[in-house]
Each structure stands twice: as structure tokens, then as C-alpha cells.
Specification:
single chain; 554 residues; alpha/beta; ten-stranded mixed beta sheet
Length: 554
């Protein structure tokens, strides 16, 4: 009898273990609260991807790329940026820190520094040196980002055992997502080199696997003819190939397929031409797969983080515009690259052993010249004319010509020392400017820094402005252009506003720990990092203001 009871107890214990349950001393079975964590988190940012690129091109996507994420994972269909400006630097920082420029401090790609009285770049760092190139292209680091990323928190949680690697064509697309404690961040240096580089912030020399990749002439192999992936006549989801709304490449008379990249290389920045084609994304995919092997990512029980930013979609969008055949082809080819990346993860990490999210750093506006042709209100903002008129007003109103230090990123920076010397009250000058500028053509709203600091908005574009306002770094007066009005050329698309065409971006999750489904409930970009932290059961990024999306967690 005693042997029989022992056998029964052993079977119960084995059964509980198989079902992830615990047998208490009193015989009660309870669910365990912990489980094996994902081996690798892969964060994917597709630069300048509007949400409707998922739906517009859906029927032509393969089953292994975007569709795989949608069908096997969770689709947040109403995901938005919750601040202005919607630029690349702030976007990448916000995705991985879980907060807005108000707290992480990356208020633009470049901004006017009120202390040094000069323009600074979000990832620029003259205190570090280039690695992998003799040019200054590697003098970069995340030092201007003031808060941690979820990758940083994973590094701290694992006693620096979990790795973080960042990869992109753009330096800021690799550096800001990887965070402050990354093992490495790598970006593409084009021109005459066509290599991935880094900085001494991370290491003193490139790892062997990176040097091997650079020596493989992968970039050279993409200097070929870019034609459409499928018959161009099947690209019915975009406009005509020949139109008046696209830029194109130097050396080619029309912005039409095909493009001989080898022949056009010398007139378009050497290897930099690849950045503005789908092959820039392919190079990043090649490098990401090499990184999984080279860094042995996802090979043990300690979670690693790989951040991958596909930047070529942004270059193509800026050049050819939202409605172009070139944008459609770029996304169809990116879909194939995603399929290739997921297959590599299945093979090298294990299907069901990794977690992926995919989003974008901002959307893009339809080319205003095209919108005007179909009677939709839109236009172009004369930035130089605006500055001339503004300076003339200041000289007439305050009898001084040097009260404005800088105008950039839709912000006006006043000369505080000059105001003081003239005994002018800062708040009075700000209010005077607000009342003046609101009368200017294509200026829709104007707010002072006093309003940003003292008011508490609960809805509307004012909330987005406030979330993007950083007291130490932002300007004294903030302007908002009218809908679909941009400071840009009459060809190609751009971004930066708080309107839906710039704020509404995809958010897809799939893999280990993710449930299947979708939602139309509003989610915000700052929710991603807390969700990943909750998945990994680690500390939230130290400035995070978003919330975990518990409904996507399995």
C-alpha cells in the first residue's frame, strides 16, 4: 500500500510539472506564477510607415511577413503617437523608453541648444571616436537621451548578461533604440565605403563578424537594377509611375522604373544611393541575421534584445511620396525581408522562443501638390518668408533686430539676455508673438512656453504639444501649421505634425508570450516599452509614462 501511494504521489507531481502547476503540502494544486522567459526580443521599427500601408498592400504581401505577424499575433489597429513632433529621433527614443520628449529629452532630430547657442544632433557626440571608418560618421552615442530603454532595464536586471544590439541604416535608428548600456549599435556608412560602423562609446574595434560582413561585398551586390518585384501593372494600389509629384535620382530624367543603381551611383552619393531603395532594407536584414549568429543572440535562457530599424522606407517616401509605385514596391520587398528574418529566427533561436514587435517612428502626409489637384486643402509653407516677416515685426514692435536667436522645428527661441538689457518682460513678448503669428498664412495655432508650462490640457493637439515640450530644451513660442501644409519641396512626402497621417502607425506583436487577436481601442506608442518590460518581468524604463497592454500578453 505504501509503495502504491508513493507511486500515485509521483505521478501527481509529474503531472503538475507538465502542466506548470505546483502540488501544495495539503494536496491542493495551484498554478505557478512564473514561466520560462522569451530568449530574444526583436523590436522592429519601419521608418515612415503609415498604418494604411498594412491594409492598402495587404493582398500582395506574402504569408511569411506582415501577414504572419497579423495572423499569428496581435494587431493594435488604432495606435498613435501622443506628442509633437513626429520625427525619427524622438520616435525611436519614445518607442524604447516608453515616454515622450517631455521626459526623454530628444525633442527633434536636430535642435537649437539654448546653452551652447548652437544646433545639436540627437545622436551626435564629439567626445567619442569613429570605429570602422576614418570619417566622423561614427562620432555618435545616446548621451542626449535622458532616460533608460527597456533594453537598458533588461541589462540591469540580468546583471549585464542579457545582450542588446541595435542595427539600422541611420545612426539614430540604431543608437537610440539600443540605449545606454548596449553591447553594440551599428549603422551603415555609405559614400565610398558601404560598411557598417560604430563608435568608441561601445567598443574600440569592430567584432570579427562585423569585419567579415563588411569584407563580404554585400553592399556591392545590391548596386544593380531596381525594377518592380511584380509586374508594375499589378500595382493598382498606387498612382501612375510617371507623375509630377516625385523627386527621383540625379542622372535619370524621369522618376520611373527601372533604376540602374550601378550607373546612377556616382551622381547620388556612392553607396548612399542604396539607402533610398528597398535594398537598404535588405542590407539591414542581412546584417541582422549575421548579428544573431555573431552575437549568439537567443542562445541561452537569459533574454537578449535586438533592435532593427528599416530606414529605407523613409528615404523612399521622402523622395517619391506616399502614393508612388516606388513606395509600394519598397513595402512588398520589405515584406520579403521580414519573411527572411523570421525564418532565420525560427531556425537560429527556435520557433516560439522569441518575441517580436513592429511599429513605426511616424507616418507621412500625401504630397500636398497632389492633394491640391484633387481639391483637398493643403499647401506649402514659406519658411524664409516667415522669418523675414517675423524679424520685420520684431524690429518695428520692439525697436530691436536681435531679439530672436533661432527659428527651428516650428519653435522660436528668444534672446533672453537682449530682452533683459531692453527691460522687456519675457511673458509679454511671448504673448505679443502669439497674437501676431496667429494671423500669418498657414499658421493654424500658436502657443507660448508659458502656456505649455502652466496649462493642463486633456485632449486635442494641445496635449501632443505639451507631451513634446521639454522645459530645458524647447523654444519660447511654438507654432502649428494648417493641416497638410508642409515646409518641403513640391515633390515627395514628409512628416512631423500631430495629425492622423503622421501619428497613426502600425503596432504588431507576435511570438512567445503574445496572444492572438486585434483591437480598435486606442493604444499609444509609449505603451510598447512598458509592455515589453511586463513581458520580461523587469523594471520599467525609468521615465516611462505609458501603460502595459495586458490584453496582448498570453
Amino acid at each position: 500500500m505504501r509503495i502504491f501511494l508513493s507511486a500515485i504521489s509521483m505521478l501527481l507531481l509529474l503531472n503538475c510539472k507538465a502542466q506548470n502547476r505546483t502540488l501544495e503540502a495539503n494536496g491542493k494544486v495551484t498554478e505557478k506564477t512564473t514561466s520560462e522567459k522569451t530568449k530574444l526580443v526583436v523590436g522592429i521599427v519601419v521608418d515612415q510607415m503609415r498604418y494604411d500601408y498594412l491594409t492598402r498592400f495587404y493582398d500582395k504581401y506574402s504569408e511569411g511577413g506582415f501577414k504572419r505577424m497579423i495572423k499569428e499575433g496581435f494587431n493594435c489597429k488604432n495606435n498613435h503617437y501622443n506628442y509633437i513632433p513626429t520625427y525619427t529621433g524622438p520616435g525611436h527614443a519614445s518607442i524604447y523608453t516608453g515616454t515622450t520628449p517631455k521626459y526623454h529629452g530628444v525633442i527633434a532630430n536636430d535642435w537649437y541648444d539654448k546653452t551652447t547657442k548652437s544646433s545639436v544632433y540627437c545622436a551626435g557626440d564629439s567626445s567619442v571616436q569613429s570605429v570602422g571608418t576614418t570619417s566622423s560618421a561614427g562620432q555618435m552615442s545616446p548621451h542626449r537621451m535622458q532616460t533608460t530603454t527597456f533594453g537598458d532595464e533588461n541589462r540591469l536586471f540580468t546583471q549585464l548578461k542579457g545582450k542588446t544590439i541595435g542595427i539600422s541604416i541611420k545612426d539614430r535608428g540604431a543608437i537610440l533604440p539600443a540605449g545606454h548600456t548596449a553591447n553594440g549599435a551599428y549603422w551603415f556608412n555609405g559614400k565610398s565605403e558601404g560598411h557598417f560602423i560604430t563608435s568608441t562609446f561601445y567598443m574600440d574595434k569592430l567584432p570579427n563578424w562585423v569585419r567579415d560582413f563588411n569584407a563580404s561585398e554585400t553592399a556591392e551586390n545590391y548596386l544593380k537594377v531596381w525594377n518592380t518585384l511584380y509586374d508594375i501593372n499589378a500595382y493598382t494600389e498606387s498612382g501612375s509611375d510617371l507623375n509630377a509629384y516625385e523627386g527621383g535620382f540625379n542622372g535619370k530624367q524621369t522618376a520611373t522604373f527601372p533604376y540602374d543603381l550601378g550607373a546612377l551611383k556616382s551622381q547620388n552619393g556612392g553607396f548612399d544611393i542604396l539607402k533610398g531603395t528597398p535594398y537598404g532594407n535588405s542590407i539591414v536584414t542581412d546584417f541582422a541575421v549575421a548579428a544573431i549568429d555573431g552575437e549568439q543572440l537567443g542562445k541561452d535562457s537569459i533574454t537578449d534584445v535586438l533592435t532593427v530599424s528599416f530606414s529605407s522606407t523613409d528615404y523612399v517616401g521622402h523622395n517619391f511620396g506616399v502614393n508612388s509605385k516606388e513606395v509600394q514596391d519598397t513595402y512588398l520587398r520589405l515584406d520579403k525581408d521580414l519573411e527572411r528574418l523570421f525564418k532565420a529566427l525560427d531556425e537560429k533561436v527556435g520557433k516560439g522562443e522569441y518575441t517580436v514587435f513592429l511599429t513605426s517612428d511616424h507616418g507621412a502626409v500625401e504630397v500636398p501638390a497632389y492633394l491640391q489637384s484633387v481639391n483637398i486643402p493643403s499647401g506649402y509653407f514659406d519658411s524664409q518668408g516667415f522669418k523675414t516677416k517675423l524679424n520685420a515685426f520684431m524690429s518695428k514692435r520692439f525697436k530691436a533686430s536681435d531679439l530672436i536667436e533661432n527659428v527651428s522645428n516650428n519653435q522660436i527661441f528668444l534672446n533672453k539676455e537682449r530682452l533683459a538689457s531692453l527691460d522687456l518682460d519675457l511673458d509679454d513678448v511671448q504673448r505679443t508673438l502669439v497674437n501676431e503669428l496667429i494671423s500669418y498664412e498657414n499658421i493654424d495655432k500658436v502657443y507660448s512656453s508659458e502656456t505649455m508650462q502652466k496649462s493642463s490640457f486633456v485632449n486635442g493637439i494641445e496635449v501632443l504639444l505639451q507631451n513634446g515640450y521639454n522645459q530645458k530644451r524647447s523654444g519660447d513660442v511654438i507654432t502649428v501649421k494648417s493641416p497638410a501644409v508642409i515646409s518641403y519641396s513640391r515633390t515627395g512626402s514628409t512628416h512631423g505634425s500631430g495629425l492622423n497621417y503622421d501619428t497613426h502607425v502600425p503596432l504588431l506583436f507576435f511570438g512567445k508570450g503574445i496572444t492572438k487577436g486585434s483591437t480598435l481601442s486606442k493604444t499609444e506608442i509609449t505603451d510598447i516599452a512598458p509592455t515589453m518590460s511586463a513581458l520580461l518581468e523587469i523594471g520599467f524604463p525609468n521615465g516611462a509614462t505609458g501603460r502595459p497592454l495586458e490584453f496582448i500578453l498570453d
